[in-house]
Write a structure and sequence with these properties.
This protein is of the alpha/beta class. Helix content is 44%, strand content 14%. Strands 4-3-5-6-7 form a 5-stranded mixed beta sheet. Helix 1 packs across helix 2.
Amino acid sequence: MYTRPLARLIEHFQHLPGVGPKTAQRLALHILKRPEAEVAALAQALIDAKKQVGTCSVCGHLSADPLCDICSSPKRDNGIICVVSDSRDLIALEKTREYKGKYHVLGGLISPIDGIGPEQLNIKALVQRVSKQEAREVIMAIAPSVEGETTTLYVAHLIKPFTKVTRIAFGLPMGGDLEYADEVTLARALEGRRELE
């Protein structure tokens, strides 16, 4: 139905999350209508982002520098660390403008079915960070799912000897993702956090 280069472009768009066949077709046809310089700029932006964006050496958030803007900011409270599953959740929490502490990005959730154990996540660095740093509180801000609960309980068990551990309140639906929650719900979830028993 499509000429080979267009079919390849549609196929590549379908690899993106949330992009089905119709959306992929729409995106590909839109790209073909754009000026060549604009398409080249988009291609270069993709290549640059892939080459230049890594993770912060302290928290694991996406960064083009050794330290992300949050870890390098003197205005953030070093005594509070909010643990999130990935950078999308960190960005969602930052949009609330309520949280003034630091973060730690695990890089996923414990999921034996998917072959993801604690060793594959950024948990060891968190334990080292909390044990060496004077953290007053660690907030577990992980979405409520089976994998999220497993990860929350596992991490909390490891860091409880060093500091107070709380979790965000459950104003979020079970199985939901933080990145899709609105700012008000996230702000209330942060305010209503409680200590893990």
